Amino acid sequence: MTPLSNLLGHFLYFVRWTAVIVALGAVVGAFSFPLVGLLIGAESTVAELALSGARKLAFLAFVWAPGTALVLTFHRLYLARQRHASVMGETQDANPAG
Hints:
mainly alpha, 2 helices
């Protein structure tokens, strides 16, 4: 695997996690806003509440999604490096001082 295709694979992994988190936020907002609106007696229609919820929670999810996706991507890279090191028989402790 070339370094460029490896980098592209990790970038796509990051983008996929970002998209999934934003989509989940939109779906949760589309379902939760009408439920809460009906419970509190909102004057908006169910469709308006669903659209508003999808927009607001998708935006909120978009604020958090890149950071979460970045952490997940680096965690994946860390695990891959650990697997590679154990296969190669390298020591796990890189600190010679102990």
